[in-house]
Request: fold
Amino acid sequence: MQTLPSRAQRVWDLVLALCCVAVAVPIHVTGIDAVPANRAPDAVSVLLTLAALVPLAWRRSAPLAVFAACFPGFLGLISARYSVGAAPIGVLIGFYTVAAWDNRRNTRVALVVAGVGYGVGLALGPIDLSVEGALVQVALLVGGWVVGTGVRQRREFHMAHVAQAERQLERERERAQFQRERAAYAATEERLRISRELHDILGHAFSVMVVQAGVAEHLIDSSPADARRAVAEIRRTGRESLAEMRRLLHVLRDGDSAAAPPRDPAATLADIPSLIAAVEATGLPVDLLVTGTPDELSPGLELAAYRVIQEALTNTMKHADASKARVSLTHAAGTLTIEVNDDGRAKTPAGTESGHGHAGMRERVAMYGGELTAKPTPDGYLVVATLPTQPLEAGTTIR
Reply:
C-alpha cells in the first residue's frame, strides 16, 4: 500500500531532482562521455536531459508515472544521436522508487515498462553504447529493484507492527473502559442492595417508634415513669434512624421494591458465629477472635461489618487455595476494626479486583466514613476494614 509522502520527503525529492540536473546538464554540455559520432549538445538536447530528470521531483507522489515520464527524454537523446550522459540516472532512480514506495502490482508493471523502454532504446541503436555500459545499466536496474524491494518490505513490516500495536492499544483502552463501566455497575448494584437493606432497618425503627409513642400516650397519666422510658426509647430510635437517613443520601433505591421477594431480617455481629459455622461446613477452618468491649452499634453499621466479613470469607473460598482463615474483631474507643486473613494464594493478580466483591466492601465501608484495604501478604491475603462507631453528625458529607 502506497503511503503519501510527508512535506520533508517532498522537499528532499525536489532537492534530489535539482542535484541530478546539476550533475547531468554539465556532463552533457561539456561532452565528457560523448563519442565523435554524437551530435553536439544544443538547447534541444539540454531540454531532453531535463525531461529525463525533472520528473524525479514528484517521484514519491506518483512513482510509476514518474518512472514512465523519465523515458521519453532518455529515448529522445538516443534517437537524435545526442550523448546520453547522466540522463539514465532518472530512469534508474525512478525504477528504484517504484520498487521501494509503490505496491507490488505497480512494481511488476514497472518491470514491463523498463523492458519495453530499454528494448526501444536498443532498437534505436545508440551509437555511444558499449557492452560494458549495457551491463552496468542492467546491473544498476537489478540492484535498484533488489534494494527497493527490501526497503518496501521493511516499511510494510514496520507499518504492520505499528498497526498491531495500535490495535493492541485500542483493545487495552476498550478493556479499561469495560472495567470502569463494570466497576460503576457494581457500585450502583451494591448501592441498590444496601438501600433495600437500610429500608428494612428504617421501617423497623419507625414501627418501634410508633408503638412506643402509643405506649407513652397510654401511660402518660397513670405511669409517668414508664411513659418517660418509652419516650427515651423513641428518642434513641429516632437518633439512629436519622443517622441511617443521612447515609442514604446519594444512594439510589430500586423503585420496584414491591416486586422484590421478601427478605430476611438484617444481619448483625451476633450472626457472625453462624456465618463462620457455614463456612467451616465447606471444609475451611475459621478462627474468630473478638477483642475489646463492643460499643452500641447502629443496625446499619452492624450489617456493614457483617457483609464485609461475609464477602471476605466468600472471596477466600472462591478465589484462594486456602487451608485456614481467621476473623478478628477489635472494639476500641469509637472504632471497630475488622481483619480477615487467610493462607491462600489469590488466583488473580493483586490489584485487579475483577469481581464485584471488593467494590461492594469498599462501598459499604465508605458509607460509614471508614477505610478498607485488601492486599496480598507473604502468608496469604488480608482484608482490613476500619469503621467509626460514633454516629455521624448533621451536615457530614456522604461519599
